[in-house]
Design goal:
Chain B: Keywords: Cell membrane, Membrane, Transmembrane, Transmembrane helix. Chain B: It is a multi-pass membrane protein. The complex is a heterodimer of chains A (361) and B (306). By secondary structure, chain A is α/β, with parallel strands linked by helices. Chain A folds into two domains: 107 residues, Response regulator (Rossmann fold, 3-Layer(aba) Sandwich), CATH 3.40.50; 176 residues, Response regulator (Rossmann fold), CATH 3.40.50. Chain A is 43% helix and 19% strand. Chain A has eleven helices and 14 strands. A six-stranded parallel β-sheet of chain A has the order 2-1-3-4-5-11, with helices on both faces. In chain A, helix 3 runs parallel beside helix 4, helix 5 packs parallel to helix 6 and helix 5 packs antiparallel against helix 10. Chain B is mainly α. Chain B has a single domain, classed as Orthogonal Bundle (ABC transporter involved in vitamin B12 uptake, BtuC). The relative contact order of chain B is 0.20. The mean pLDDT of chain B is 87. The chains are: A alpha/beta (361), B mainly alpha (306). At the A-B interface, strand 7, helix 7 and helix 8 of A face helix 1, helix 11 and helix 12 of B.
């Protein structure tokens, strides 16, 4: 009786052991879990959509070696922290938080999960396990500015802004420097809608700008509504974050396209190889993190000039924020012969001289 | 003065969805039913209108489908609150949350489609008259419908027997029941009408205002419509004025910005609600005013005595 019991126990133990071993083996082959947090819906066909394209590229590249999860429509605030923590708790080893407002929640959760790696887009605070990354969208905006300067007839640009944060202000400055490089008479009118995503309001803002004489529509909000209004009103404009030609086949001149695919693949690879570091990445046209959608609805010479500008920015021949640069108050911000350092660009809260608008505080 | 006409045109498009859904809600509330699901019904209407228009190529079929979809959702609400006597406030809120999620689910396949916006009326010569032409004779038919419906509602409530019965049901369901009116049946109809109007308002957003589908594209307009009914103290005439005033505020702040006038846009976004609170304070300070207009039985479940 006893012997039998012993035998059984041994067998059971062996089974458990085998199971444990099996589990260990399975764990080694377990996919790397990667989480993504988006501020808008993946269906916004703009900013969040492009991040999700990046996530899909990761899945395609690594197949069943990764398992990705995303949470969309996450408000920037207390809810974000809950979502990020949830992702960390459910075994994600690498988490991308893709909007500026996720910065503090990301750092807070990162402190509680030192073994999880975090990547925060467009922010400036880092930690041992928090890297930051952003794209130099403003380089694309300079190219757009050149096109706009050549295309506008009324010399009035309509600009739909989301929030007056450095990212957006920098874009406006860069765009106007591009426009002035070919047409010094260009003026810009700016409307803030205080939202990244409210198609109705973005569209109304675009209408207001057109009514004020704008004949080029630029947007730094995420829905295609402003461009669509441009199409209906028969003016030209630029797509934001992704190629929006479908919404404006006659109006879109080009679009500043975010291209996260390569970066996301690199970072996932780095985690797999154990070479991941909490560093800061700020890539632009040169590295391909930003690229321009095809130049359409413009004469060949303008398209050629746009192409040339794009190449010169990539090669470094054009330095967008090369001095001398004065702000609106006339204060010299960048000296002649110098180029604005990244730190200044990241904290840019002033308009360059020549912009006839007041920055909301 | 070139900017006046386009400004008015923009105000009209901004006001029409508010007017459509608020007219429906006004009739619903007059019958004694408080449906807080306007936002949800609008979203369902928006995606239905868009999806059907994309699939059939006909905006008219899309608009009809949107109204039917709004009614279908309102029917669920009516069944829960009138037949099963669930709490109207809680059910209405649930309806909104359901509408947000459900429309996003259905709509995920329709993101990124572009459609032709609904054609506007164009009468040769008359539509070309400066200023008056484009404003009065150059709109799409939903704009005319919204104005017609609010006027018709005013006429219905004050001049027709059916309207008086509806108000009686909303003011005292016990009495209305006692003299032989079918309280539940009338409330069902009023709620369905509200659903249809919200569905139309949603279709206006996805087919005219911004001709595309985007998740949560109502962005709070359903709540403004609800506030508007209170703001108008349940009177169609004031509702019309209020809808255009709210539309005007939202558009004017954008115009002010682009004209270089600095107004805090957050303050302007707050104004409709602030105005509603002020109206509430004013009407609450005078009991007779409330009794005259607000349906006395609003939000109360009716249990017919057996």
């Amino acid at each position: 009786m006893k012997a039998r019991f012993m035998k059984r126990t041994a067998a059971a133990l062996a089974t458990v052991g085998a199971m444990a071993l099996g589990m260990g083996a399975a764990q080694a082959a377990d996919p790397l879990k990667v989480g993504f947090v988006y501020v808008g819906p993946v269906g916004d066909f703009g900013y969040s959509y492009q991040h999700d394209q990046g996530r899909k590229a990761v899945e395609e590249k690594f197949g069943d070696k990764v398992k990705t999860t995303f949470v969309e429509n996450v408000p920037e605030g207390a809810d974000a922290e809950r979502v990020i923590r949830q992702l960390a708790q459910t075994g994600n080893e690498l988490i991308f938080t893709t909007s500026f407002g996720f910065m503090n929640p990301t750092l807070k959760v990162a402190k509680q999960f030192p073994n999880v790696k975090f990547e925060h887009a467009t922010g400036y605070k880092r930690a041992d396990n928090v890297a930051t990354y952003a794209a130099r969208f403003y380089e694309g905006r300079y190219v757009a500015g050149v096109i706009a300067g050549k295309t506008t007839k009324s010399n009035i640009i309509g600009y739909v802004g989301s929030f007056p944060i450095p990212e957006v202000v920098r874009g406006i400055n860069s765009f106007m420097r591009g426009a002035w490089s070919v047409n010094p008479d260009v003026k810009v009118k700016i409307v803030w809608v205080n939202s990244w995503y409210d198609p109705g309001k973005e569209g109304d803002a675009a209408k207001a700008l057109i009514d004020q004489g704008a004949d080029i529509m630029v947007q730094h909000t995420d829905s295609p509504a402003p461009l669509q209004v441009a199409e209906n009103r028969g003016i030209k404009g630029f797509g934001q974050a992704s190629d929006m030609i479908k919404f404006a086949p006659k109006a879109q001149l080009s679009a500043i396209v975010d291209h996260w695919d390569d970066y996301y693949i690199d970072r996932v690879q780095a985690v797999m190889d154990g070479t991941w570091k909490a560093d800061d990445t700020w890539h632009g046209l040169k590295e391909g993190m930003v690229h321009m959608a095809p130049f359409t609805n413009m004469p060949d010479d303008v398209a050629a000039l746009a192409k040339e500008t794009e190449e010169k920015i990539a090669s470094g021949d054009i330095k967008i924020f090369a001095g001398p640069i004065y702000d609106q108050a006339g204060e010299l911000r960048v000296k002649e012969g110098e180029v604005a350092p990244d730190g200044m660009l990241l904290g840019m809260d002033w308009y360059v001289k020549g912009i006839d608008a007041e920055l909301p505080k | 003065m070139d900017w006046i006409v386009p400004l008015i045109l923009t105000v009209i498009t901004a006001s029409t969805p508010l007017l459509l859904s608020a007219t429906g809600e006004l009739i619903t509330e007059k019958s004694g039913v408080l449906n807080l699901g306007v936002e949800g019904m609008m979203l369902i209407g928006a995606i239905t209108g868009f999806a059907v228009t994309v699939s059939t190529g006909s905006a008219i079929i899309g608009i009809i489908a949107a109204a039917i979809a709004g009614m279908a959702i309102a029917l669920i609400f009516a069944f829960l609150t009138l037949t099963l006597m669930a709490n109207q406030v809680a059910t209405g809120l649930a309806l909104t949350i359901f509408g947000v999620g459900f429309s996003a689910l259905v709509g995920s396949g329709f993101v990124g489609f572009a459609i032709e916006p609904l054609p506007s009326l164009h009468i040769p010569f008359i539509s070309d008259i400066p200023v008056i032409g484009p404003i009065l004779f150059g709109q799409d038919f939903l704009v005319y419908l919204s104005i017609f419906m609010v006027i018709a509602s005013g006429w219905f409530l004050t001049k027709t027997r059916a309207g008086l019965i509806l108000k009686a049901v909303g003011d005292s369901h016990e009495s209305a029941h006692a003299i032989g009116y079918n309280v539940i049946g009338i409330r069902y109809m009023a709620t369905l009408f509200g659903g249809a109007m919200s569905g139309l308002a949603g279709a206006y957003l996805s087919l005219v205002y911004t001709p595309m589908w985007a998740e949560n594209m109502t962005a709070g307009r359903g709540w403004i419509a609800l506030a508007l009914v209170v703001f108008a103290t349940w009177r169609p005439g004031r509702l019309l004025a209020g809808a255009y005033m709210f539309g005007c505020i939202s558009v004017l702040q954008l115009h002010a910005q682009s004209a270089g006038i600095n107004v805090p846009s957050q303050f302007m976004s707050m104004l409709p609600y602030l105005a509603t609170v002020i109206v509430l304070v004013i009407i609450s300070s005078d009991q007779t005013k409330i009794r005259l207009n607000a349906p006395a039985c609003i939000g109360k479940a009716f249990r017919p005595a057996q």
